[in-house]
Amino acid sequence: MNFLKEHFKKILFFLTVLILIIMIGLSSIGRLEGTDLGFVGNMISGFQKLTYKTGNTLTNSFYSVQEIVKMREENIMLTENVYKLREQIRILENIINKSDALETEYEMKKNLSYDYVVGQVIAIDDTNWFSRFTIDKGENDGIQQNDIVIQAVKTDDSMVQIGLLGIVTQTSSDWSKVITLLDESCKVSFKDIENDESGIVQGSIDGNVTGYFFNSKTGAETGDNLVTSGIGEIYIPGIYIGDVKDVVKTTDASTLKIIVEPAVDFTKINRVYVLTK
Amino acid sequence: MSSLIIISFVFQTSFIGFFNYFNVIPNFPLILLVIFAMLSDGVTGGTLGFLTGILYDAMIFNIFGLYTLIYFLIGVTIGAISDEMLRENRIVYSVAAGISTVVMHLLLYIILFFLRFRVQSAKSILPNILFETALNTVLVVFVLKFVLYLFDKFNVKA
Predict the structure, then answer these.
(1) Alpha carbon of A27: minimum distance to chain B alpha carbons (Å)
(2) Of A48, B3, B38, B85, whose CA is between 20 and 30 Å from A155?
(3) What is the pTM of this model?
(4) Residue B103 confidence (pLDDT) above 90
(5) A144 and A96 in one domain?
(6) What is the pLDDT of residues B12-36, one digit of tens each?
(7) Hey, is the C-beta of A193 within 8 angstroms of any chain B C-beta?
(8) What's the domain range around A54?
(9) Number of domains in chain A
(10) CA-CA-CA-CA torsion for A26, A30, A31, A32, nearest 10 degrees?
(11) Is B116 left (phi over 0), alpha (psi -120 to 50) or beta?
(12) What is the pLDDT of residues A213-270, one digit of tens each?
């Protein structure tokens, strides 16, 4: 008894460390749930939403003053781009219309719609080790673990996807945690649109997205578009991931390594679209 | 002390990120933890470290316990040895903040290594860590002034 009294602080210290180590082990293999702080967590997320919006408004107003000069030039450039894209669409539609199979697939993809929830980022990871953020929508809005998060724009008649952002890893009643494509623990199976070959891309601590093709003899080239393949049944197929930035020759003869330029600018995430199942 | 830690966490994760011009921002919750642990003892330091870490783990990260363990260890250690340090000397706070930042990243590296993360690519974030360490080392002096002013104003005894 005297021993306990004498060394109470030391015992408490080692017990806490031991329990925390066990918790790290359990949560890293997904065996620990209910760690969202309940009511306190919801209150903190409410404050985070408020301060994030304030920060966003402040920086946006600063940049909008800075960018007024650039806007005219950008407007001219964008108008030219619209003409170019319209021409491209005309050419592609002409090709598609010549084949029944292609036309059917085009119609199918054009009319493909997802159920989605629009979320606002309320907190971002501030360390260099991970790439994660929290959004203001949770289970009460229909969001579940493993829902896909994308960046998109809403037009008058539909939602146009810009690219894959990441995946929901944990949900609370009013907020959810998301890991991005840049995070070390995010792995996505992809398909190269140009050659139909598949592979896996993964984020890393240094912020680069790298990947490999299952088939080392594939003719991947810089600029190839990558979309989710749907293998593994977590990611919906056809979500745009990004382009091949570089093809790297490695000593491993069975795979071909690539460096990927993601479609989304991860430094400017504000409003996100969660595709619900 | 706890309220200041919670407020700094909210600002750190939702507001300060907008001023992330060189991929580096100072770690205000860590700076506050260092100051509070220095002004108190191991038990208070450990409790505040636990609180800081649990906020990160619950609100942002998926591996629960990772930051709680790191901040707890930092809080306990600084609190326990603060008695033997000259608390009036501002340089001591700077040194403690600098060492804590380095230790935090070192512990992260070690734990992530055991969790089978590809930590070999961590060398590319080394300049950011050093810059963050320098920022924390300098800013701790100003934050300390502010904290002491608040303590004085609201009659708080550390």
Answers:
(1) 5
(2) A48
(3) 0.79
(4) yes
(5) no
(6) 777 777 777 777 888 899 999 999 9
(7) no
(8) 38-105
(9) 2
(10) 80
(11) left
(12) 887 777 788 888 888 888 877 788 888 888 888 888 777 767 788 889 888 888 778 8
Shared domain for A127 and A222, answered yes or no, is yes
Render pLDDT for B104-120 as a digit per residue (tens, 0 to 9).
Answer: 999 989 988 888 888 77
| Min Cα separation A102/chain B (Å) | 42
Angle A89-A93-A95 from CA coordinates, rounded to 5°: 120
Question: A184 and chain B: CB distance < 8 Å anywhere?
Answer: yes
Residue A16 within any structural domain of the chain? no
Report which of A52, A175, A50 is spatially closest to residue A124, judged by C-alpha positions. A52
pLDDT of residue B77: 92
Query: Model ipTM?
Result: 0.80
* Domain limit, last residue, from A77, A105, A133: A105
Q: How many CA atoms lie within 13 A of B53 on its CB side?
A: 26
Domain final residue, candidates A105, A136, A163:
A105
Chain B residues with CB inside 8 Å of A47's CB?
Answer: 10, 14
Evaluate whether residue A255 is within a structural domain: yes
Indicate if A55 and A165 belong to the same structural domain: no
Tell if the CB–CB gap between B15 and A130 is shorter than 8 Å.
no
Instruction: Assess whether A276 and A141 both reside in one domain.
Output: yes
Whether A251 maps to a domain, the answer reads: yes
Surface of A (108-147) touching B: CB under 8 A: 122-130, 132-134
Buried b (16+ CB within 10 A) or exposed e, A68-105: eeeeeeeeeeeeeeeeeeeeeeeeeeeebeeeeeeeee
Question: What letter does residue B124 receive in the DSSP assignment?
Answer: G
CB interface of A with B, residues 29-88, below 8 Å: 32, 35-37, 41, 44-45, 47-49, 51-52, 54-56, 58-59
Residues A143 and A65 in one domain: no
